[in-house]
Amino acid sequence: MRQAPNNAGKSQLISLLLCTSLACSLCFASAFTHASEINTLRLSCLADRHSQAGRFLAQLYNRALEPLGYRVEMVNGDPQELIGLLRRGEVDGTCARDLRFSELTGITHLIPLEYSSITTTIYAVRRKRAELSADTQNLKLGYLPALKRSAELFENLNYKAILPYASTQSLLAGLTMGEVDLAALPDGMYANYRQRHEADDLTIHEVMFTQPGYAHLNRKHEQLVKPLSRRLVTVSAQGESYHVNLNKFAPLKNAETIVFGCAAKANGETQQRFELLATKAFQNMGYNLKVVHLSRLRERTELEQGRIDGSCAKSRYYVDNASDNTVLVEAPLTRDSIDIFSANASKKINSISDFDPSDRIAIVQSTYVVRPDVAPLTDRLIEVSSIEQGLSMLADGELDYFIDFKFAVIEYLDQIPLKKPIYTAGHLSDPVFYPALHKKHEALVPALTAELRKLIAANGQQDMMDH
């Protein structure tokens, strides 16, 4: 005879399972809530919480921490004050520091979590920038010894006088008093200093590079490290209303990979087009490709000295006239417009002969494609270090004209605050750009040319082949 269901036993079993499940859930939740009594992580941060970078970091952390039962409180202060808070355990960690932060400060109870990047920028005194030499060998550069990788880069860029300073305050004081011509600082550190101190009016001389940025958590929150690390990477990858450059600073020589530099805008059309075609071309040839975004000066220096294997975009003029170490790959990838810019809407330049003898005209150093168009002006050209510097000098009345690539200038006009609007005053030419290889890879040129030309034609851009 079939037994009746034992509903009482089943109910007891279900109750037991529910209790067990609930207990597990509570245990799991408590693992993340126990670390802070009020579910708040207090993180020291060099980026001011009211700045764009600070607001982004707060948003990033809150979105990453919310599913874990936490929220973030950003704690600002002078760098040494923040280090003291970390040392005494009065904050739970940092929002973004170098990997060697614990080693350099002697704070041993911190665990690093990589997720973002730190940008290092070179600053100059605004009123002195027009007097700066375009030759890095003639400039004194101050930096913080903690930025070990920076010193190596500055030597690679032929800075001969590289002077260490103990703190942000002493470095910027040295810059304003004329002890050094330039100062290199991580962006967050500079922004934090300017929030708390009056300083001489500084301007960007050159944006150098990015390197990995690490959050650091006190070891008492060790159970949060793995889940928070995963959440930070996920949320960062979503591009939450602020573009974080996730390219890592790394040695630019890799025996298993062809490394190309690209001075075009990171993730811009030129770089994306090059990566799309060149990655496939090198795969067909049995190579991997890595593309690193560099400033124009650094890309040229790295390429000429053979520390990178090629460039994503060089002009024929550069390879023929300004380089002994590069070989052009005859597969044109893109073209751009070289235009003349002014802060005076009434200025119009139809030819080189339209410039007045008194006009102050600037180009960016290492921009060799412009030189054929401005050859008659060679003896009077002012060389600036970057587009940012050229546009700022133009808006401040220190220049009458600035000559550079149309699309690059337009991109920067959307990013930097200027005192006056900038206008297009004329057009010079529409140069075509090609990939270029260091001469040590000259044997690869025929195969790479053939592969790229096939891919260009297959993508319906046969018209580029006519140049």
Description:
There is one protein chain. The chain is about 35% helix and about 25% strand. By secondary structure, the chain is α/β, with parallel strands linked by helices. It has an 8-stranded mixed sheet with strand order 2-1-3-8-4-7-5-6, with helices on both faces. Helix 9 links the parallel strand 9 (about 255-260) and strand 10.
Quick rundown:
The protein is an alpha/beta fold and 467 residues long. It has four domains: 33-117 and 213-237, D-Maltodextrin-Binding Protein, domain 2 (3-Layer(aba) Sandwich), CATH 3.40.190.10; 119-211, D-Maltodextrin-Binding Protein, domain 2, CATH 3.40.190; 257-335 and 432-466, 3-Layer(aba) Sandwich (D-Maltodextrin-Binding Protein, domain 2); 338-429, D-Maltodextrin-Binding Protein, domain 2, CATH 3.40.190. It is built from 14 helices and 19 strands.
